[in-house]
């Protein structure tokens, strides 16, 4: 019996390309918006640094969430394997002395 915990989920190449394009466009639009704002250079620099920090922390958060999800899947599969082993070894007709 296969369930979603044993089969790896893969994204299609089209989804990967769409995600990369969306990220690139949004990052470029944000940079263009910061460049076009009527601000001093240090204010633009602050917004640029905040944007870069936001992007890097978003990547870090997504990696942590992915790693935690994968660890949960591994623990779940280990628990299932242990349970299956116990069920396979159990003999209901064995007498206890």
Description:
Pfam families: YiaAB. One of its GO terms (biological process) is DNA damage response. Keywords: Membrane, Transmembrane, Transmembrane helix. It comes from Nocardia aurantia. InterPro entries: YiaA-like, YiaAB. The chain has 97 residues and is mainly α. The chain has a domain of 35 residues. Helix content is 75%, strand content 0%. It has two helices and no strands. Helix 1 runs antiparallel to helix 2. The longest helix is centred in the last third of the chain and has 49 residues. The chain is elongated. It starts with 12 loop residues before the first helix and ends in an 8-residue tail after the last helix. The model has no long low-confidence stretch (mean pLDDT 85).
Summary of the model, kept short:
The protein has 97 residues and is mainly α. The chain contains 2 helices and no strands. Residues 15-67 form the YiaAB two helix domain.
Write the layout of secondary structure elements.
Blueprint: H1 13-36, H2 41-89
InterPro entries: YiaA-like, YiaAB
Keywords: Membrane, Transmembrane, Transmembrane helix
Transmembrane segments: 12-35, 41-61
């Amino acid at each position: 019996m296969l369930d979603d915990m044993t089969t790896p989920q893969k994204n299609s190449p089209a989804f990967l390309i769409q995600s990369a394009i969306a990220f690139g466009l949004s990052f470029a639009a944000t940079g263009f918006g910061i460049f076009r704002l009527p601000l001093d250079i240090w204010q633009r620099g602050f917004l640029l640094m905040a944007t870069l920090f936001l992007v890097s922390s978003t990547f870090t958060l997504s990696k942590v969430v992915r790693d935690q999800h994968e660890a949960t899947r591994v623990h779940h599969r280990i628990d299932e394997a242990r349970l299956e082993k116990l069920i396979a070894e159990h003999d209901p007709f064995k007498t206890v002395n």
